[in-house]
Every structure is written in structure tokens, then in C-alpha cells.
Amino acid sequence: MDATRVDSYLWAIRLYKTRSAATDACKGGHVRVNGHPAKAATKVKVGDRIEARAQGRAWIVEPSTLIDKRVGAQVAVTCYVDHSPPPPPPEFVAPPAIRDRGAGRPTKKDRRMMDRFRGSGT
Fold it and tell me: Which of 6, 45, 85, 117 is the most buried (most CB within 10 A)?
């Protein structure tokens, strides 16, 4: 096999959960092959550069082996070279303020302190 469809390849290497999701990504303009927007039927060869938005981040892969059937995850990662930037670090989210049970509604003083903490107060 010297070429395969880009949607089939992205599904086979497990960037997208279903082939229809890979096709929709191509239709939506989230997939580029060698810098050009790709339709689902665009042929991919070994050494092409595929840029895709999947799983909430940008992926840049270069096929080293062409496959058109879905394979196990351990085999799939050997079929491409990953040039993607590392994923962003997870954002720290402060835990919500916890009030004692039965303390009732916040007082005016409590609300002012919460506003100052959030940066919306003066």
C-alpha cells in the first residue's frame, strides 16, 4: 500500500474515536496535510505531515507505516512519528470556599471579603 485516506489513517492510529469523527474533522477544517486543508478522501503517503486538532490539542504526525485498519494502541504509536508540542500543563483551580454546615447565608462582611478575594470588589 503506497497511500491511504487521511480520515481512515487518523482513525486507525487512534487520534479519533470513530472514522466518522475523523471525517467530520476534515470537513470542519481541523485537518491539514502538508500545510493544505484536507478533505476526508485526501491520500496520505509515508513522510507526509498531518496536522490535526483532536482530543483538545494540536497533533502533528508524520506517517512511518501506512495502515487503514484500526490496530491496538501499542501498535498504533509505532506507525507514526509524533512532532506535536507537549500538552499544556493542567490549570490549577482553587477549591470552592467551604462554609460550616448550618452557618446560614454569608453576612455583608463575608460577601465583601469574597468580592475582594475574587477581585471584583474595591
Answer: 6
